[in-house]
């Protein structure tokens, strides 16, 4: 457990006070690791959000037990932007001990507005970086650069050519944790300062993962065509084909050592779609076959082998944050869909069954230790169903009169079923 949590947990000793009031403007107590540790120590957490809902839970679950002389360790968390507890009812203020926690106390040398934008699951890495590098007082931009370098391992200042930029963007988007908006903006700013990438649609493909994958998808045929021409020794004009949705160079260095592993994984896991090409046979046996439909149809067992390796090497543990399981889900769905096909070989089926048992074991452990912490997480982004109303409300309020916000629910559709359905939809409606 990271030491930043220890600074908080040392304030919670069972039996010291039956009621503890905490001003927690940055949501530190509802972070999965802290919440799980408090529960292990016997503390129960109630967020103070809706006064009526809180009063009902407080009176029905705790006041009666206290009147009967029962001991409890109750923690009431106030997420007010201010650091005081004045918004709590008077009877609670009279009865409870008072604590305050905020990011500014944990990271005093970093810009608080920038650190506040960071996902709480990244605080472990940030705290370790702060301990190892001991930065002095940093302003906004210096803090952003510190986070990009030491939390996300991104160094835009050393990007000097298209292969560097492509590798950096692939690393950013393939990662399990997305950057907050302030870091996306800083990344774009630093990259544009060089003047080398003015023709790249950085404002679109840096912040939006799906836009970046679409940017890659529509340029993949150009790269395949280049390789075919290279095989035939008939290199011609490499101008951009008509109809590209995104601006920028038509030819990308997909074959660069820093990009090729990511591209292979994206095709294997379904983030990029294999294409048809009339000269695909000329590229059989090369690494680009992973992005050709003919190559996958010729040897589906090889595709399944890649999925087994990808899922097996990225299996989360029972202690990891929920974001790791969310990132793992598409890989597992793609593997499940492929393993259920008639082309799966006996040895691969056995490996899939063994891996499924391991996945079930780790996920069961995670459910036991961490699932109960999710309901108290902030609703941005939503993690559970009850987060959706609070997530959608600002979108509805900010919309123009003619704008509608729709929530589409596909009840009972398993992720691996969606993988199969998606393939059919793409074939029937390529423009989707």
Please characterize this protein's 3D structure:
The protein has 432 residues and is mostly helical. The chain folds into 3 domains: 3-106, Rossmann fold, CATH 3.40.50; 112-208, no CATH class; 299-432, no CATH class. It is 51% helix and 5% strand. It has 20 helices and 4 strands. It has helices spanning 3-9, 32-40, 51-67, 90-95, 103-106, 112-116, 123-133, 140-150, 162-174, 181-193, 202-205, 209-217, 220-232, 260-269, 293-298, 300-313, 322-339, 346-370, 388-398, 415-428; strands spanning 19-23, 43-48, 73-78, 97-100. Strands 2-3-1-4 form a 4-stranded parallel β-sheet. Strand 2 (43-48), helix 3 and strand 3 (73-78) form a beta-alpha-beta unit. It is globular. The model has no long low-confidence stretch (mean pLDDT 88).
Mean pLDDT, nearest integer?
Answer: 88
Strand content: under 5%
What structural category do the secondary elements indicate?
mainly alpha
For the biggest β-sheet, the strand order reads 2-3-1-4
End-to-end gap: 44 Å
**What is the oligomeric state here?**
single chain
DSSP helix count?
20
Overall geometric form: globular
Largest sheet: 4 strands, parallel
The H/E string reads HEHEHEHEHHHHHHHHHHHHHHHH
* Rg of Cα set: 26 Å
Work out the count of structural domains: 3
């Amino acid at each position: 457990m990271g030491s930043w949590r220890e600074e908080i947990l040392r304030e919670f000793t069972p039996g010291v006070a039956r009621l503890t009031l905490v001003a927690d403007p940055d949501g530190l107590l509802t972070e999965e690791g802290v919440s799980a540790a408090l529960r292990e120590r016997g503390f129960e957490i109630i967020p103070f959000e809706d006064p009526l809902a809180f009063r009902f839970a407080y009176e029905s679950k705790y006041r009666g037990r206290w009147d009967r002389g029962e001991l409890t360790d109750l923690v009431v968390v106030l997420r007010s932007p201010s650091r005081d507890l004045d918004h709590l009812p008077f009877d609670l203020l009279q009865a409870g001990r008072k604590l305050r926690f905020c990011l500014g106390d944990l990271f005093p040398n970093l810009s608080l507005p920038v650190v506040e934008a960071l996902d709480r699951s990244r605080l472990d890495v940030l705290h370790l970086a702060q301990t190892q590098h001991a930065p002095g007082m940093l302003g906004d931009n210096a803090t952003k650069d510190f986070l990009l370098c030491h939390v996300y391992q991104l160094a835009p200042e050393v990007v000097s050519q298209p292969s560097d930029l492509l590798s950096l963007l692939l690393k950013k988007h393939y990662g399990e944790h997305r950057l907050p908006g302030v870091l996306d903006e800083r990344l774009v700013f630093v990259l544009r300062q060089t003047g080398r990438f003015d023709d790249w649609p950085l404002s679109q493909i840096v912040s939006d993962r799906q836009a970046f994958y679409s940017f890659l998808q529509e340029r993949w045929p150009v790269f395949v065509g280049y390789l075919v021409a290279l095989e035939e020794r008939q290199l011609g004009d490499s101008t951009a084909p008509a109809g590209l949705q995104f601006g920028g160079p038509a030819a990308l260095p997909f074959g660069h050592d820093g990009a090729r592993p990511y591209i292979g994984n994206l095709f294997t896991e379904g983030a990029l779609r294999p294409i048809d090409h009339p000269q695909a046979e000329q590229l059989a046996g090369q690494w680009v076959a992973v992005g050709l439909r003919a190559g996958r149809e010729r040897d589906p067992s090889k595709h399944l082998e890649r999925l087994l390796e990808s899922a097996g090497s990225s299996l989360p543990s029972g202690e990891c944050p929920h974001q790791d399981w969310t990132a793992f889900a598409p890989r597992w769905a793609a593997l499940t869909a492929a393993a259920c096909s008639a082309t799966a070989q006996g040895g691969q089926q056995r490996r899939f069954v063994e891996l499924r048992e391991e996945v079930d074991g780790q996920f069961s452990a995670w459910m036991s230790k961490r699932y109960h912490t999710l309901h108290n997480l902030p609703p941005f982004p939503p993690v559970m169903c009850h987060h959706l109303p609070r997530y959608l409300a600002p979108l509805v309020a900010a919309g123009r009169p003619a704008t509608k916000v729709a929530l589409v629910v596909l009840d009972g559709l398993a992720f691996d079923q969606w993988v199969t359905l998606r393939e059919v939809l793409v074939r029937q409606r390529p423009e989707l």
